[in-house]
Amino acid sequence: MKTKEVLGLISIMFITYAAAAIGGFGMGDSVVTWYPSLNAPSFKPPNWVFGPVWSILYTLMGISAFMVWRKGWNTFGVKMGLILYGIQLVLNSLWSIIFFNWHMLGFALFEILVLLFTIILTYVNFKRVSNWAAYLLIPYILWVTFASVLNGAFWALN
Questions:
Q1: Rg of the chain, C-alpha, whole Å
Q2: Contact 46/36 with Cβ under 8 angstroms?
Q3: Domain ranges of the chain
Q4: Which of 10, 42, 70, 132 has the fewest Cβ atoms within 10 angstroms?
Q5: 136 alpha-carbon distance from chain centroid
Q6: DSSP class of residue 158?
């Protein structure tokens, strides 16, 4: 890789992990105080699963965005795909704040559905540019779909 590409990869990964960190900080201590007090659905994974899963997903997301970025800004798919990528990063961080910090389970469900729709739009735009970049988003789509169902179950039970 050229120096420009290495710097691009570092920048995209930094932005991606920064979004993860913002979401993590946005949860505050609710993950150990408020969250355990909720009625949980039977299919909720153990808490230790979330950290590794999200670490893998953010890594795949960043690599995916880098693959699209490498194609240059001269195509609509690249521009729109990366704009949507940025929007979904913001929505992803915001969901943690809404759910864990604000304790607004119903609004969090609405927000995560908007997030899921935005991720799918990102996938569609990435696919115009690179099949592999789009394929790397599939685990993210599946996990956020599951998280949406989980969010809905928490809302229904609480």
A1: 16
A2: no
A3: 3-34+49-157
A4: 42
A5: 12
A6: -
Report pLDDT digits (tens) over 33-76: 999 999 999 999 999 999 999 999 999 999 999 999 999 988 88
Q: Which fold has domain 3-34+49-157?
A: Ferritin (1.20.1260)
Nearest to 69 by CA among 20, 25, 125, 118: 125
pLDDT at residue 76, as a whole number: 85
Cβ contacts of 23 within 8 Å, gap of 6 or more: 92, 93, 94, 95, 96, 97
- Indicate the pTM of the whole model: 0.96
Written as six digits, the tokens of 105 are 């389970």
DSSP secondary structure string for all residues of 15-40: HHHHHHHHHHHHHGGGGTTTGGGS--
| Residues 111, 137: Cα–Cα separation, whole Å | 19
Token pair 């969901």 in the structure block, residue: 95
